[in-house]
Each structure stands twice: as structure tokens, then as C-alpha cells.
Amino acid sequence: MYKKHLITCSVIVVLFVMSKLFIYSTTLKKTVEKAQPKGDNDVVVSEAPDASNELNFANEPVPVHDPKVAVKLEHSLKQHSFKRLQTNKLHYRAAKLFTVIEPILKHYGIPDDFKYIPIVESNLEAGVSPKGAKGLWQFLPGTARTYGLKVNSAHDERLNLKKSTVAACRYLRELYGEFHNWTLVAAAYNNGSIKLARQMKKQKKHNYFRLHLNHETGRYIYDLVAVKQMITRPGELGYQSIEPDSVAFN
């Protein structure tokens, strides 16, 4: 009698466990099915967007949905179009000089887009500005010395592409430690960290595209983005597409 009772209890327990497993598996199946898209109108979690066609600087998007931003960007793009410049000179020089600049930027952890700064700053020409800035990275004498370059009457390392690029990377890393945003770092490179920080504090804004800055710095990021488009997608700005590997240098 005791054995029969034990068997009966065991059967009941087994049936109870099986029923729970059935309910769990059914619920799980319904949950999975509910999560699957059943039509074009279903709302599903989107994957990371493809940013290949988005305008950005150092992977920080340009808010082109803002009408004011769109107008400024359009102006910079026109200023760097083939219709305006009528030459492929910058493409040829960039193809040559970027082979030196790119590895150094990568070594120091600086986004690749910063290679466009020498184009905006100096047009890839080692000239001297009215303020005394010199070289492709347009260093002032004092700033150049601060970041390890020799500048004297006998020798000026601002004209040395490799050494000046290393100095620029050291400066950019220091700026990133202050601003923690690559767009602001680029703006600070042009305007100086003290001036930019002062404007950010005064205006209580930490977004380059919301700040009111002097004319040159206010268009700086737009010019960098325009130059990036000019070099990477020349056809969109009216240039004949150029493959760097096919460019011959004297």
C-alpha cells in the first residue's frame, strides 16, 4: 500500500514538472515570436546606423538638420569646390604628405581626420602667417618650442613635416585632455584653448555648433569637413576622381 502511494505521488510530481516545463517553453516561444518582425510596419530595435554617408569630423556628426549649420556647411563646401578653386593641386599634395602624417596621427591616438588641419591652416604650403605662424601645422614660435620643436635663427623645425606633426599630436592630445571632444579640440587648435574655454564658460555651451565664435574659428570645423569631402569624395564637389596610388610626384 505504501509503495502504491509512493508511485502515485511520484507520477503526480513528474506530471507537475512536465506541465511547468511545457508552460515555460510555450511562453518562451511566444516571447521570441513576438520579438520577431512580422511586417514592414513592425517596430524593431535598429542596428547601428551606417555612418559612411554622414558628414562628420572625427566620427562626431555634423548636425546638418539645423538650418544654420546647413547654411554654413553649404558655404564651406562651395568654397572648396572645383568651380571655385579650379585645380587639383591639393589632391596631389595631400596624396604625398598624408603618407607621412597618417601613421604619426595613428601612433599618438589622434583621429585620422586631423590630417585635414594642415590643408585648412596652410593649404599644405610651408608659408608664414601675418602673426608669425609657420609650417604646415602653422605653429607660432612659442607654441612650437613648448611641444619640442627647435625654433631659432639657424634652424626652424616647424618646417620639418615629421617633427612638426609629432608636435601637433602632442598638442592635440593635451587639448583632448582638457575638452574631451575632438570637435572642440580642433576649434581650440585654431583659436587657442584659453579663448575657447572662456567663450564656453561665458555662453554656457559645450557644443561647437552652438557656440558663437570669431569668424575664422566659427567656420573652422565646416572648412575641415568640406576639405574632407573634397579629398575623399572629389566627384561630389566637381573634381575628377584621383587615386592616390596613381599620382606621380617630382
UniProtKB/TrEMBL annotation:
Residues 111-207 form the Transglycosylase SLT domain. It holds the Pfam family SLT. Signal peptide: none annotated. InterPro entries: Lysozyme-like_dom_sf, Transglycosylase_SLT_dom_1. Belongs to the transglycosylase Slt family. This is Transglycosylase SLT domain-containing protein. It comes from Mucilaginibacter arboris. The lineage of its organism: Bacteria, Pseudomonadati, Bacteroidota, Sphingobacteriia, Sphingobacteriales.
